[in-house]
Amino acid sequence: MIHPDCKQAIIDRARIDEVLGDFMSLKKAGVNYKGCCPFHNEKTPSFVVSPAKGIYKCFGCGKAGNAVGFVMEHEKMSFTDALKYIAKKYNIAVVETHLSDEEKQHFDLRESLQVVNSFANEYFANNLHNTADGKAIALSYFKERGFTEETIKQFQLGYCLEQKDAFTQAALAAGYKLEYLEKTGLTITADYGNVDRFRGRVMFPIHSLSGAVIGFGGRIVGANPDKKFAKYLNSPESEIYNKSKTLYGIYFARTEIAKQDQCILVEGYTDVISMHQAGVRNVVASSGTSLTVEQIRLIQKFTNNVLVVYDGDMAGIKAALRGINIILEQGMNVSVLLLPDGDDPDSFARKHSADELHNYIKTHKTDFITFKTQLFAGETQNDPIERAKLINDVVRTISLIPDPVTQMVYVEECSKILKISQDVLLKQLQKITQTAILQTHNRPQQQTPTPEQIAEITEQNDTMGIISTEKELLRLLIVYGDKTVDLPILPQPIHVHEYLHKEIIDGGMCLQQDVFPAMFREYFEHNLQQHDASQYFNNHHNQQCAAWSIDFVKKSMDMTLSGIWKKRQSAYETEEQKLSTVVWDTIATYKRKRLEDEYKALANQLKNPLSPEELLHITAELAKKKKTIQNITKELKHVV
Q: Among candidates 473, 583, 482, which has minimal Cα distance to 535?
């Protein structure tokens, strides 16, 4: 149990943006930070972190809390473990009070398994450096692979002795229960006695995103390794280790992935370690398993760009290609890097410096679909049947990409490589898309939700953020309609109500949600800019309108956009002082969201049979809207 004074010191020291930055990519947005929520799948950032208030809030799924609560929720940790993680980050010595036997029994299963793994990690590392077999067998193996002492310690590599139950006996002697040794998979119990799962293997600890050891990978070593046993062995699934949700090296790579805006994906433990040692640190491994949606979403917390590295083995490449479709389905950008024959990422990294590696990656990577098309085009050139299969396969891969403009770019590129008409590829693309839609419609329908559930789902699934932005527009109108703002796009100051009327009503973008359109119109019909608009709506005969108005006023009273605290005085910048930026940012955001909504609706038309002329027209319109969205996004970044 952590001492109360120590607990408070940890909480006081934690900066929420720094703690959350270990788990996700955050970008500055005024005095706050924004990013894609790590608790639900989203592409438009709705997750806001306020360093001044020490809290986070997702306006998409509604989750909110402080730094400790985030670590608990994200890593499924207990309160104590979350505090210890933050203490470790800030090099705070944890002071614990004595735990009675009764208190120890109340530790939950996850915490118990975590403690056992932590002991095992230290035990294996000690074997590597301080036993005769560890030095002669395991340490020699790592040295032969070119791993330095610094790398070995950083990745916490170790060794499990060859003896049948050496680890189990040591753990039991240290007071750890056999029940937990079994549940972590470190010990196998049998009629003939207990056996160490990883005996005679070098050990690769597998870390969670927060750095906790959640499992192990072990490689058999020795002068004459028994071929009956698998070369590599992983911990079994447990309460703290799920292979399909884990990427080896993510703890060491997460910061660099966000910094480089790219994740390099390799296959094995040594590939990650060698590349990291060579200076390429944004690299993770799937550990020989097929990629899963959970693993891709783990990467997506930090970047939308994935580079998959293959060695020169053609059979291996063809087998691995099948697993990449899932990355495309998640809307991510996939590139491929092919290494020279005879090299894998491990061996190639050991032969080259960091500069050489970075240069090779830069000059040799290619986008996945072009790579796949070029890879098979030569093989099928003289075989019409195989060529037809290739074309269908390539088009099927293109159909997985959510963005229709990107689809069209690839259709054009593949048309050139395969020397086939774009119209043929487009027709096949539409056919595949329509088939997928029919299959979706033919699936068994779920039970119809109640009206209350529909309202809740609508709010939670506001993926475009339109509902929340319309709330902000109406709030600004009611609370600040008579205020004057100086906007970067206008030559002179303007009243908030004038600017909102110009952009919303004159701009043909009437609000759409709930009672918002009626309240917006009523404001101007009653010339409320000349009166106290909030007082008018607070006492409105429509209770729904009154409730919204009261909520807007309360939010505006509580809100401060920055906390610039000075010694002996509390000077802070209020929302009204930042009103020009707030109004401009809200309108620009709303325009962007509406354009994104229109873009999505237009893109859906591509699922219908279209003539070449209609197809070109829609594609051109999509390109225009995408360009406008990008321009607004750039303007938002500059102003914010």
A: 482
Helix residue ranges, H only, 352-447: 354-364, 368-377, 384-399, 404-418, 422-441
| Domains annotated on the chain, with CATH | 4-101 (3.90.580.10), 107-241 (3.90.980.10), 245-364 (3.40.1360.10), 373-441 (no CATH), 466-564+571-639 (no CATH)
Q: DSSP character for 175?
A: T
Round to whole Å and give the CA distance between 605 and 615: 9
- Does the reported pTM lie above 0.70? no
Tokens of 619: 């594609």
Distance of alpha carbon 570 from its chain centroid, rounded?
Answer: 37
Are 496 and 627 within 8 A, CB to CB? no
Contacts of residue 432, Cβ cutoff 8 Å, sequence gap at least 6: 395, 396, 399
Structural tokens at position 215: 């499992």
Of 47, 23, 578, the residue nearest 297 (C-alpha): 23
Q: Share the mean pLDDT of the chain.
A: 81
> What is the pairing mode between strands 333-338 and 283-285?
unpaired
Closest CA to 44 of 589, 509, 457: 589
**d(C-alpha 390, C-alpha 382), whole Å:** 12
The identity of residue 619, as a single letter, is: T
The predicted-structure confidence for 476-522, as pLDDT tens digits, reads as follows: 888 888 888 888 777 788 988 888 888 888 877 778 777 888 888 88
Beta strands in 120-231 (DSSP E): 158-160, 187-190, 193-196, 201-207, 213-220
